[in-house]
Amino acid sequence: MSFGIKKGDLVLVIAGKDKGKRGKVISVLPKEEKIVIEGINMVKRHTRPTPKNRQGGIVEKPAPLFKCKVMLICPRCNQPTRVKYSFLESGQKVRVCKKCNEIIDQV
Length: 107
Known about the structure:
Number of domains: 2
Number of helices: 0
Largest sheet: 6 strands, antiparallel
CATH topology of the largest domain: SH3 type barrels
Order of helices and strands: EEEEEEEEEEE
Oligomer: single chain
Radius of gyration: 17 Å
Helix content: under 10%
CATH architecture of the largest domain: Roll
Mean pLDDT: 90
Number of strands: 11
């Protein structure tokens, strides 16, 4: 299932405690319809000391956020936008900004 946002995209949070913040997508979880954004929806996890992590303690890390709470920011017009899909003459599927009708990038 594809929902228009992929790893590396810049997004704007439109709902929740981090409303109005922008961030870069770290990972996409399509089966759960969630995304992880750098510096957004930070949670604290208590960890034990392990051979991999010698010092235990409180670790802050970003938690997944539902895809409906974010909008893609168009790199051309720098506005939050919805995404539509279009096909080039070569038959390649591309993402297109609904505000400025420019190609965002190739899918």
